[in-house]
Description:
With 376 residues, this protein is α+β, with helices and mostly antiparallel strands.
Amino acid sequence: MPPVSLKDGFSCNHTMSDSPENRNYYSKAGVNVKTGQDFVDLIKPLAKTTAIAGVKGTLGGFAALFDTKAAGFEDPVLVAATDGVGTKLLLALSANKHQTIGIDLVAMCVNDLLAQRARPLFFLDYFATGQLDTEVASKVVEGIVAGCQMAGCALIGGETAEMPGLYSTGHYDLAGFAVGAIERRELQIKNDIQPGDMILGITSSGPHSNGFSLIRKLLSDNSINLQSKTPFDPTKTFAEALLTPTKIYISSVLSLLNNAKCKIKGIAHITGGGLYENIPRILPPGLSASLDATAWSLPPIFQWIREIGEINCEEMAGIFNCGIGLVIVVGHDEIDTANTILSEHGEHVYNIGKINSSTTDTPLVVIDNMHSSWET
Length: 376
């Protein structure tokens, strides 16, 4: 997260006397400069554990540097993504469980880079709060560091903003920014998805970081305590199950991308909008996707959401990933190779559908057998 400057709408880098009187006056306004400085010192060693080839300079400057040539790229095109974790944060706050929300933050950004075939290089975060709680913030950063390590990218900078009056006591918000790269020659590969190509689905770890406004409403409407055991997994509390971090697919899918025996034609990260809205983002004009819901089982957590909320299958597939966190399109002859490589890297993969020709009246995504498979 470093470099850090505490802000209440203005940067603390402006000229002012460093006298105890001035520091005390700023503290009376709700901004504790010393707490922020101590926090920077606390998290610097954590950030250093994510260093990779290409990181230049040290933490604490006004901006961070990264050398793509040192990272092994010859003619790179940079790819950038930004995201947050939405109202899943409110569950983390309610449960006082902050260790994994940083993994969610990294995952939501780097998985988007992966959808562009890019390798993540570095990550920056933005942590905003009314009053900095170093214990909570440190746990969040530990999660960010863990996420960066899973994604093989470096945490090279960020911002911590203390803004009393804007955030209520004990609340904070997060945003993440990831930058990756792809060789120009690879970027120029034509999207040649065509009828007959197959759609592979890689399993998710749960709702990831989408649909939590609905999930929170279900919890509230049914007076569910986050610390009670879930009916769909009696070994976990609702807090543990719902705060399971978003899965990071970087290692396994990059291995597939780098394998000459298999050509990935398209990658879709299944986030907000679910299967219905994200798969069309990789489809060329004139094509559609047909999925078969019997190809994979709807995970118990989604079954619980569907049943307790009396949500129809079509709405579920338009909100949640429904157990499929990443979709990959490959040629029919490359299914076995792709399955083998992904399975060797610990992924659970299903052949969930195929690409078809379409007309202007054809839905871009059709999911067959949802009712017979998901409502049993």
